User: What shape does this take?
Amino acid sequence: MMQLDDQAYARIAKYFQLLAEPMRLKILNGLRDGEKNVSELVALSGGTQANVSKHLTMLCAANLIQREARGTKAYYSIVDQQIFDLCGLVCGQLAMQMSTAAAANESFISAMQSQANS
Amino acid sequence: MMQLDDQAYARIAKYFQLLAEPMRLKILNGLRDGEKNVSELVALSGGTQANVSKHLTMLCAANLIQREARGTKAYYSIVDQQIFDLCGLVCGQLAMQMSTAAAANESFISAMQSQANS
DNA sequence: TTTTTATATAACTATATACTCATGTAATAT
DNA sequence: ATATTACATGAGTATATAGTTATATAAAAA
Assistant: This one.
């Protein structure tokens, strides 16, 4: 088992924390196919300008996205596409959980039915 | 770009939230090489019994770990080792960030030095 | 049966953080 | 110069959650 010090756990936790927010995930997903400016992300996410801007600032500070100002606009883009591998893994996990739950549910239902029929 | 509904973002965020806590990461890492009971995890993590127990209950409710009671003890184990792929990816990200930062720092320092020498 | 051991949980506190509203700032347009 | 557009940020509020303390529960030992 790899031994990590407390600081390492804290760093990893902070990283996951960034992804532990629906609006931020939405924003990141919105940037999947290329840079977008703040207004575009506001429209896309359905959030308020202030809130989206704050999330962008956080993601930028953590270096998950980068900012480029052009004129009065600020364009944000993904720094490393690998971030989507993480999300993909989680989606896979959740999909599996749900299919497992569905299967369990089905077998529960059929067990109930066969009991009712006996 | 894949379109996800708000519920999907919420689910994914909740999953990441589970990993966004140093003590829980420590516990999960402690289970990497096989099942352990609560006392062992308390000793290993340095947390209190109550706190470790709570985290275990959370991880269990989310189906990241499973519980098996034997006698007075409760043994917990990882449900799907894929969880460590996630942590591995994040560690990789952080390692890269740090090496990038180190490189930037070095070039900053050498720039300062050459300026001082001029 | 009583005690001990191992674990879970309820009540509470402290802290972090997501959000809103209002305002600041900076580049462009008029 | 002034107004407008695009974005960032400070203050304040509400909520979530990690942690502690005390207690409940349940199996095993005495």
Notes: Residues 17, 21, 23, 47-48, 50-51, 54-55, 69, 71-73 of chain B lie near DNA strand D (CB under 10 Å from a C1'). The first strand of chain B starts at residue 36 and ends at 37.
